[in-house]
C-alpha cells in the first residue's frame, strides 16, 4: 500500500519527539554548531514556535520513521541556511523521508522569500549524496581548522587589528568583492550575525576577520587581500588576541577551497585540520522541482523578498569607488 509523507511545522505536541531525535542530529550550519551546539537548541526550537526569530522547524512522518528539520531565514537576507536534521542519515538507510524533508524545507524557505538554501555537510557523510539527489550543488569545499584555547598569550604579531565600524562597511564590501570569486559572492560572505576585525594598510582595509562567539567555541572566517597574504599568520594571531573567549574556548577557522593559501598560516599557528565539508546550495527563485521523488505540499505562508545585505549588495559600487590603480581581484576558479 502506498504511504503518504506527512510534513508540518513543529507544534508543541511535537516537542517530546524533537527532544528525542535531536540526540542523534546532524548539524549543517558550522557557525551555529561549533559556537552554540545546534543539537542542543531545544530552547531555540521552542522560541521559534511562540516567538518566531528566523528559525523554521518542520516535522516529517513516513511509515515508522520521523525526521525533524530546521533552517534559519531572516527577511533581510537572501539566503536561508539549514541548521540541522534529526536523526542523522545512516550509511545504508533508505533516504526517502530525508529527501522529502529537504524538499519541504526548500519550498518553505522559498515561500518566505529566500533565494537559496545552504547546507554544510561532510564529504564522507551519506547525506552528501542525498543532498545532491535533492538538487543541491557543491559551491565550494571548506576545511574547519581547530585550536584549543590560547590561554597563554600569543607572541605579539607586530601589527594591530581593530573592531569594524559603520564607516568601514564600504571598504569591507570592496575587500570581499575582490577576494571571493564572483560566482560565490552571494552565498560565501560572512553572516550578518558575525562581528569583525579589520586590518588597514595606509588607511585601506586589506584584511577582514569575521568571527562569532558562543558558549562552546569561537568561529572565524578570514578574508585577506592578495598583497598581504605573507602577513596572514600575524593577522589571524592579532585577531585571536582581540577576542577574549579565545582564551577559554576552542577556536575554529573556516578555510574555503579558494583560500588554499591560508593552510600554511593555520599550520604556522598550530591549528589542526578538523572537518572537511562541502558547501551545498539549492537555488529557489525558479521554484522547487524534483522528479526523483514525490513533492510535498505545505500550507502557504506570506514572505517578503529579502533585501541584499550591505556587504554583498554594495560590492560593485564599492569596487567602483576604489582609487585609480587599485589592485586587481583574485582570479576566478
Describe this structure in words.
- The relative contact order is 0.18.
- Residues 38-51 and 286-333 have low confidence and may be disordered.
- Strand 5 (79-86), helix 4 and strand 6 (116-122) form a beta-alpha-beta unit.
- The chain contains eleven helices and 13 strands.
- It has helices at 15-21, 30-35, 42-50, 96-111, 126-133, 169-179, 185-188, 232-242, 262-268, 310-313, 315-320, and strands at 6-9, 26-27, 55-62, 65-72, 79-86, 116-122, 137-147, 162-163, 195-201, 204-213, 218-224, 251-256, 272-283.
- The termini are far apart.
Main β sheet profile: 13 strands, mixed
**Structural class from helices and strands?**
alpha+beta
| Total helical segments | 11
Number of strands: 13
**Oligomeric grouping of the chains:** single chain
Q: Calculate Rg over CA atoms.
A: 21 Å
The unreliable regions are 38-51, 286-333
What is the mean pLDDT?
82
Bulk shape? elongated
Fraction in helix: 25-40%
- Beta-strand portion reads 25-35%
First CA to last CA: what distance?
A: 49 Å
**SSE string:** EHEHHEEEHEHEEHHEEEHEHEHH
Amino acid at each position: 500500500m502506498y504511504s503518504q509523507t506527512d510534513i508540518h511545522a513543529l507544534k508543541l505536541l511535537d516537542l517530546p519527539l524533537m527532544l528525542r531525535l535531536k540526540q542523534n542530529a546532524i548539524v549543517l550550519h558550522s557557525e551555529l554548531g561549533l559556537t552554540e551546539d545546534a543539537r542542543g537548541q531545544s530552547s531555540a526550537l521552542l522560541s521559534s514556535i511562540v516567538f518566531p526569530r528566523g528559525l523554521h522547524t518542520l516535522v516529517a512522518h513516513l511509515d515508522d520513521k520521523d525526521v525533524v528539520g530546521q533552517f534559519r531565514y531572516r527577511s533581510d537576507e537572501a539566503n536561508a541556511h539549514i541548521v540541522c536534521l534529526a536523526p542523522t542519515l545512516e550509511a545504508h538507510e533508505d533516504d526517502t523521508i530525508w529527501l522529502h524533508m529537504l524538499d519541504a524545507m526548500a519550498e518553505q524557505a522559498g515561500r518566505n522569500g529566500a533565494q537559496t538554501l545552504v547546507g554544510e555537510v561532510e564529504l564522507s557523510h551519506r547525506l552528501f549524496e542525498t543532498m545532491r539527489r535533492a538538487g543541491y550543488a557543491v559551491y565550494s569545499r571548506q576545511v574547519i581548522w581547530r585550536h584549543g584555547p590560547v590561554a597563554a598569550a600569543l607572541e605579539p604579531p607586530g601589527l594591530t587589528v581593530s573592531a569594524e565600524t559603520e564607516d568601514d562597511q564600504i571598504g569591507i564590501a570592496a575587500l570581499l568583492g575582490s577576494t571571493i570569486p564572483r560566482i560565490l559572492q552571494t552565498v560565501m560572505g560572512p553572516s550578518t550575525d558575525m562581528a569583525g576585525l579589520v586590518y588597514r594598510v595606509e588607511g585601506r582595509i586589506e584584511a577582514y576577520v569575521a568571527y562569532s562567539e558562543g558558549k562552546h567555541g569561537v568561529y572565524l572566517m578570514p578574508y585577506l587581500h592578495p598583497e598581504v597574504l605573507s602577513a596572514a599568520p600575524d593577522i589571524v594571531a592579532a585577531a585571536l588576541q582581540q577576542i577574549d573567549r579565545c582564551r577559554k574556548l576552542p577556536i575554529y577557522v573556516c578555510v574555503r577551497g579558494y583560500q588554499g593559501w591560508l593552510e600554511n598560516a593555520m599550520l604556522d599557528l598550530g591549528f589542526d585540520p578538523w572537518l572537511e565539508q562541502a558547501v551545498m546550495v539549492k537555488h529557489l527563485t525558479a521554484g522547487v522541482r524534483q522528479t526523483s521523488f514525490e513533492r510535498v505540499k505545505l500550507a502557504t505562508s506570506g514572505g517578503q523578498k529579502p533585501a541584499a545585505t550591505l556587504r554583498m549588495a554594495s560590492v560593485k559600487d564599492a569596487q567602483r569607488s576604489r582609487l585609480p590603480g587599485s589592485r586587481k581581484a583574485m582570479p576566478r576558479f
